[in-house]
Amino acid sequence: MKKSNKFSPEVRERAVRLVQEHRGDYPSLWAAIESIAPKIGCVPQTLNEWVKRVEVDTGVRDGVTTAEAQRVKGLEREVKELRRANEILKLASAFFAQAELDRKLKY
Asked: 23 is in which domain, residue-wise?
């Protein structure tokens, strides 16, 4: 189940840009986030996650980028489907092999 996004990508980008632009006006990043979050209409933790995500995606902070995470998720989904298909093929192969043995024994 997918989380509903209350905030549009434009609002997220604007909020992160505000934090980045006004970061120097506050003693810490968290202070800037706490000041800007109510203006956007979100809680500071949410805005902090947006800022961290942008920093990871732009290479400022270490971590797995959004694109890489989506790629891995797609590959995991593909592996799961291939394993399921492989299991079906194994069962079908065993079924037809048994049917062939049964047919040869009847002659």
From this structure: 1-63
